[in-house]
Automatic annotation (TrEMBL):
Listed CDD domains: ComA-like_MBL-fold (cd07731)
The protein's name: Competence protein ComEC
Organism: Pseudomonas abietaniphila
GO cellular component: plasma membrane
GO biological process: establishment of competence for transformation
Domain named Metallo-beta-lactamase: residues: 501-685
Compartmental location: Cell membrane
Taxonomic superkingdom: Bacteria
Length: 738
């Protein structure tokens, strides 16, 4: 039976790796084949097919519930009920609508809505809204967070931006929203938002700086409610009963073990209900219930049974959960703990157990984190030695009891004040650790490295004395120290990142790196920090020889300060230098400057008589073995005309579309002079500017120029100097990108 359950789990997990869903006829045939196989010894294959079928049917149902393409970018009036906990960050109200209704067309069952400058929205209210709808999508860059997969895992069928709206039916605050408002109103030494995250799972109160500190120290799991918190609370309640029984204070007529198990599970379920029973909480409660049942009645079955049953239950309830990184991290972490403490001849002392558990979990999760393209906390194993007991003994009990006793103002508020102070002290320590050892983003590695690294991690988790255990170190370190492919002399690897409505292009020669523009920043949303910087680090780049900013507009230079602060930058060259951020040591772009890196020639041009803004963009020409790329920033037709009149050699095989394909650029004269075979367009899907303009696109087609659009293809890569085509991130098929 254990083999069958393992096969079922593998079948459910296959969904995560499918490039495309099987056709409907195959989905219908697989369960029939599985039923035919059940009576024979091939029943594991039957269970595997059952798992694959259920996962694919569930995924197809979610895909079919997405917004139709004909409505993508359209504005519709609709009505719906606000669910969950709406939040407001930087003046943007974000909330979720369930079962929205429109008179014009059926809509997906769940919408994720943003209202810029909108009023306060409460859970349970009914609104009539004019919403500009978008199909689920997101930026697509190598190794980056896949927002489109995350939306599908949440079964959100569309996103949207509110244009206008009116409240149809008000409601009293939901009990969770009422608790949140009370928590945010309490004086908790500035950590009210953190307490709301810990108690209710509402992480909107954590600032970007807080998030960075938690990520750098590997303590996100402690402040954003997850299985860790469920386990901590259940462990405290179980330990309380066990301690009272050991010290003789527990009633003799009441068996302590069943009481401890019931109390622990009841407390966990109550906490999960308070936190809204999101999928991570559901998963934790299922696993806890099975562990307690195993502890109470079925210990003879071994520890692997609860793990296997919980894995299957979670995947059967929601097969799409495998698209979320947290699913893999939580189950792998539990499996590591089982390996650490199972099958050993002697017991460790408690301090030895605690410290070794932290280090071995860090080692076991290392290849998983790198495979999921997640940052690795260098300080995490040490910091968690202090942070986990700090949260479990002080912060979490104080926060929960303070919330419970809010009806008694002096008691509840005092407890929350103490909880906030404890949390603030924790963040002081975490900030010191984060500054000393920030998180590390590993470079991209070949696929064959991961199985070997996982094998190395498994060997290191085995007890001392196991043969070949020492081989675990070189195998594990493959994912960290694997040699990176070097770019041949005279060639340039060009990566146009998918940054939405903006521009960021990374150019790498054999020994040098140049970043042309740094992506947009709008308010606290910094694409330079969130997309461009991780892409640079994932490419194995530790410094930039030059950051060339075409001009000072926020969609081109907004991300530059964050990148300059995080990485050593040899030189910052910029057009429109007078308007650049003050913290950047900018040199003005000069007309005709030329330099050579690794037999690759770079040349700049700028219209010295240009006004500020787009016309002052610094143009860069790159020549690698006779194959040329022309990067133009946001120059317009007058600047294009000036460039041609001044005799700058614009002939190139590849052209970055001036001003994202705006109607005010890409003149006929420029296209005739450049005569490119392909044009790279960087823009946001359904952007408010209408880029690229239909007239410009028709002009490209007229000249026989191939277009490569980041909104459709994601990040685009070409190897200049080989006279080959381009690669695109979205060409790597995933079933959720259909």
């Amino acid at each position: 039976m254990r083999t069958g359950m393992l096969a079922l789990a593998l079948g459910l997990l296959v969904l995560r790796f499918l490039p495309a869903l099987p056709p409907v006829w195959l989905m219908l045939a697989m369960p029939v084949i599985a039923l035919m196989l059940l009576p024979f010894r091939t029943y594991p294959l039957a269970f595997f097919l059952f798992g694959v079928t259920w996962a694919c049917v569930s995924a197809k149902s979610a895909l079919d519930d997405r917004l139709p393409e004909r409505l993508d970018g359209q504005t519709l009036w609709l009505e719906g009920k606000v669910v969950g906990l709406p939040n407001t960050v930087d003046g943007v109200v974000r909330f979720q609508l369930d079962d929205p209704v429109s008179r014009r067309t059926p809509l997906p069952g769940q919408l994720r809505i943003a209202w810029y400058g909108g009023p306060a929205v409460q859970s349970g209210e009914y609104w009539r809204l004019a919403v500009k709808l978008k199909r689920p999508g997101g930026l697509a860059n190598p190794g980056a967070f896949d927002y489109q997969a995350w939306l599908l895992a949440q079964r959100i069928g569309a996103t949207g931006t509110v244009v206008d709206g009116q409240l149809l039916r008000a409601t009293t605050h939901s009990w969770r929203d009422t608790i949140r408002q009370r928590l945010l109103a309490v004086e908790a030494q500035g950590r009210q938002g953190g307490l709301a995250a810990l108690v209710l799972g509402d992480d909107s109160g954590l600032s970007p700086a807080d998030w960075q500190v938690l990520q750098d120290t590997g303590t996100v799991h402690l402040l954003v409610i997850s299985g860790t918190h469920i386990g901590l609370l259940a462990g405290l309640l179980y330990g309380l009963v066990a301690g009272l029984a050991r010290w003789g204070f527990w009633p003799r007529f009441l068996p302590w073990l069943p009481s401890a198990c019931v109390l622990a599970l009841s407390g966990a379920l109550a906490y999960g209900y308070l936190a809204g029973f999101e999928v991570p909480v559901q998963r934790a409660c299922v696993m806890l219930g099975l562990v307690l049942l195993w502890r109470l009645r079925f210990r003879h079955l071994g520890a692997s049974w609860p793990m296997l049953i919980a894995l299957n239950l979670v995947l059967i309830v929601e097969p799409l959960i495998s698209l979320r990184p947290g699913f893999w991290l939580s189950f792998v972490a539990v499996g590591i703990l089982m390996m650490i403490f199972g099958g050993r001849l002697g017991a460790w002392r408690w301090l030895q157990s605690w410290s070794r558990a932290q280090w071995l979990i860090a080692l076991g999760l290392l290849p998983v984190l790198l495979a999921l393209s997640l940052p690795v906390s260098v300080s995490g194993p040490v910091v968690n030695l202090l942070a986990v007991p700090w949260v479990s003994i002080f912060i979490l009990p104080l926060a929960l009891f303070g919330t419970f006793f809010l009806a008694v103002p002096w008691l509840g508020e005092s407890l929350l004040w103490l909880a906030g102070g404890s949390m603030n002290a924790l963040f002081v320590v975490l900030a010191i650790a984060a500054e000393a050892a920030p998180a590390w983003t590993g470079p991209a590695t070949p696929f064959w490295v991961w199985p070997l690294s996982l094998l190395g991690a498994l060997l290191l988790l085995l007890p001392n004395g196991v043969p070949l255990r020492a081989l675990g170190w070189p195998l594990l370190l493959l994912c960290v120290l694997v040699p990176q492919k070097r770019i041949p002399q005279g060639e340039v690897e060009v990566l146009q990142l998918d940054v939405g409505q903006g521009l960021a292009i990374l150019l790498r020669t054999r020994e040098h790196t140049l970043l042309y523009d740094a992506g947009p920043r709008f308010g606290e949303f910094d694409i330079g920090e969130r997309v461009v910087l991780p892409a640079i680090r994932r490419a194995g780049i530790g410094h930039l020889d030059m950051m060339l900013l075409s001009h000072a507009d926020a969609d081109h230079a907004g991300g530059a300060p964050a990148i300059h602060q995080a990485l050593p930058v040899g030189r910052v060259l910029a057009g429109d230098a007078a308007r650049m951020p003050a913290e950047l040591p900018v040199e003005s772009c000069r007309n005709g400057e030329t330099w050579t890196w690794d037999d690759v020639t770079f040349s700049t041009w700028i219209w010295e008589q240009a006004a500020q803004g787009n016309q002052a963009s610094c143009v860069l020409r790159v020549d690698a073995r006779g194959e040329r790329l022309l990067l133009t920033g946001d120059i317009d037709v007058p600047a294009e005309r000036a460039m041609l009149e001044q005799g700058f050699d614009v002939r190139a095989h590849w052209l970055q579309a001036p001003h994202h394909g705006s109607r005010s650029s890409s003149s006929k004269a420029l296209l005739q002079a450049v005569s490119p075979k392909g044009v790279l367009i960087s823009r946001g899907r359904n952007n408010a500017f209408g880029h690229p303009h239909p007239l410009v696109m028709s002009r490209y087609r007229w000249f026989g120029i191939e277009t490569y659009d980041s909104a459709e293809l994601g990040a685009i890569t070409l190897r200049l100097g080989r006279f080959e085509g381009v690669d695109a991130e979205r060409r790597e098929r995933r079933f959720w990108r259909e």
